Amino acid sequence: MNIPNRITISRILLIPIFILLLTLPLDWGNVSIGKDTLPIVHLVSALLFIVASGTDWVDGFYARKYNLVTNLGKFLDPMADKLLVAAAFVLLVELNMAPAWLVIVILSREFAVTGLRLVAAGEGLVLAAGQMGKWKTAFQLVSIAFLLLHDFPFSYLDLSVSIGTILLYIALILTVVSGLDYFIKNWHVMKESK
User: Fold this and answer.
1) Fewer CB under 10 Å: which end of the chain, C or N?
2) Cβ of 132: how many Cβ atoms within 10 Å?
3) What CA–CA distances, in Å, run from 91 to 132, 144, 167, 184?
4) pLDDT grade for 161, boundaries at 50, 70 and 90
5) Which superfamily, per CATH, for 3-192?
6) Between 162 and 159, whose confidence is greater?
7) Which parts of the chain span the membrane according to its record (predicted)?
8) Could you tell me the pLDDT band of residue 160, with boundaries at 50, 70 and 90?
9) Mean pLDDT of the chain
10) Highest-confidence range of 26-35, 126-135, 175-184, by mean pLDDT?
11) d(CA 71, CA 144)
12) Does residue 34 surpass a pLDDT of 80?
């Protein structure tokens, strides 16, 4: 197994640790940030999430630079991304940090696009992610990190709305628009499938 695939597997292995940190009744105290407090367990979870998210860039860079792109990597990498993001969003709902309806919309789009990619794969086609989809992913990851960090470092500002929440709604808009764009551009796959 090559190094990029090992990095991807390490991302998958970090997901259960991330889940346990946010679901076990751990009380490691709080850190004061502006007028709010940040539970240390949220800080540690956010840092773990950022590290796990960063491995996506590292494995992709390494695979392209050294021509180590494999079918296993093509399967594992997007799966690892979806598992990490889905776990984080579900946990944010459980922690009352994100509305359930919004997370349902985001996850529904991910399932729909994955389904379209499976249909295309059955026809021998590979559907690449578009630029808007990459922006969508970036905003999803950044919004999750800011929500877990309780908006740190912007928590010191006296804002009436959460930066993480603003980023989350931008991610929602990009998720819906990029999903529609993806289906419009690739609808021929559904029409032509046998």
Assistant:
1) C
2) 16
3) 25, 10, 17, 31
4) confident
5) CDP-alcohol phosphotransferase transmembrane (TM) domain (1.20.120.1760)
6) 162
7) 12-28, 40-62, 83-105, 163-184
8) confident
9) 89
10) 175-184
11) 29
12) no
In contact, 171 and 105? CB cutoff 8 Å: no
Query: What does the H/E/C string look like for the chain?
Result: CCHHHHHHHHHHHHHHHHHHHHHCCCCCCEEEECCEEEEHHHHHHHHHHHHHHHHHHHHHHHHHHCCCCCHHHHHHHHHHHHHHHHHHHHHHHHCCCCCHHHHHHHHHHHHHHHHHHHHHHHCCCCCCCCHHHHHHHHHHHHHHHHHHCCCCCHHHCCCCCCHHHHHHHHHHHHHHHHHHHHHHHHHHHHHHCC
Q: Which residue has the tokens 């407090």?
A: 37
* pTM of full prediction above 0.85: yes
What b/e sequence results for 157-179 when a residue is b if at least 16 CB atoms lie within 10 Å of its CB, and e otherwise?
eeeeebbbbebbebbbebbeebb
